[in-house]
Amino acid sequence: MIKLQNNLPKTVIIGAGGYIGRHFLNTYRQIYSDLIGTTRVELDLLNPDVRRLRLPENTYKEALILAAIPYVDRCELEQALSWKVNVTGTIELIRQLTDEGIKPIFTSSDYVFGGNAGGYKDNSPLCPNTEYGRQKAEVELRIGEITQGKYLILRFSKVYSHVKGDGSLIDAMASNFAQGRTVRAAYDQMFCPAYIDDVIEVAAFLQSSGITGAVNLCPSKSISRYEIARALAEKMGIGDALIEKISLDDLGLCVKRPKNTSMSNDRLTELMSYAFTDLDNSLEIVGRLWAAEKKDVKNAIIC
Ligand SMILES: NC(=O)c1ccc[n+]([C@@H]2O[C@H](COP(=O)([O-])OP(=O)(O)OC[C@H]3O[C@@H](n4cnc5c(N)ncnc54)[C@H](OP(=O)(O)O)[C@@H]3O)[C@@H](O)[C@H]2O)c1
What we know:
binds NADP nicotinamide-adenine-dinucleotide phosphate
C-alpha cells in the first residue's frame, strides 16, 4: 500500500489516461475521492484552457503535468507537432495554472542530460542531445520565471511497474523471454529505473512538504539494460541464451540515444530518507509472473 501524507495538496492530474497518470490518479484518490484527472478531451495541450476545469473553485492547489508526447523517435520525426505539445502548450498551461494560483509540477526526464558522463546532479547544466530532451529542457529553463519560483520539476529516469502486460521496462523483457524471443540489450545504456509506487510516494512527500525547484526522482543505483536482462533471465531460469549483448551504437536507431543518463539523487536524500524498492526484488516479482508461460522457441528479436 502506497503511503500518502494527509496534507497532500489537492492535485489535478493532467494526462491521467497515460501510463504514469493512471497510477497517480488511482493513488491520489485515496486522499481525495473526487479528484479529477484530464485526458486530451478535457485539456488538449495543443490549445489548453485550464479555466474550464474550475480548479480554484474546487479547492485544487497543484497540478501534476504528465501529458506529453514522450517518445524519443516521434519527437525527432514530428518536431513541429511535438514542440507545440511538449513546449508551447505546456508552457501556456503552466502560465494559466500560475494565473489561477495553482502550483504546476512538471515531469521531466533524464534525457535533459547528454549521456556522456552520467551521475548528473539535480543542478547539473542541461545538455540534451535529442529533440525530446531539448523540449523537456526548454520547459525546465522557462518554468521558474513564469511561476516566480512556485513550481516543482520531477525528473524521472525509466519508470517501471509490476503489472503484467503493461509493457513497462521489466514486463516487456520478461514477456519476450517467456515467448522465447531474443532480447538485444545494450551494455552501455545506463540509467536509474524507479518503481512506480516509489515515484508516487516520493512525489507525494515532496508535494506535502512544499518543495520547489528540480528534484531527480530516482534511486541512486544505476544499471545497464544488459545487466537488467541478465538478472531477469537468471530469475526466470533461462540463462543467457536469449540475450544479445550489444552497444547502443549497434541498434542503428534513427535517433541516437544518450548512453549514460544516470542521475544522482543527492537533493532527494537531503530532503527525505527513503528506501527505494530494490530492482532485484522487482525482477523476481515480474519474472515470476511470466515464468509460467515460458516457451522454448526462439522466433524474434527485440531491443
Ligand atoms: N514512463 C517513463 O518511464 C518516463 C520517464 C521519464 C519521463 N517521463 C515523463 O513522464 C510523463 C508521463 O509519461 P508516461 O510514460 O505516462 O507517458 P504516456 O503513457 O504516453 O502518457 C502521456 C499522456 O499524454 C497525453 N497527451 C499526448 N498529447 C496530448 C495533448 N495534445 N493534449 C493532452 N494530452 C496529450 C497522451 O494521451 P493519448 O494517449 O491520447 O495520446 C497520454 O495519455 C511524460 O512527461 C514523460 O515525458 C516518463
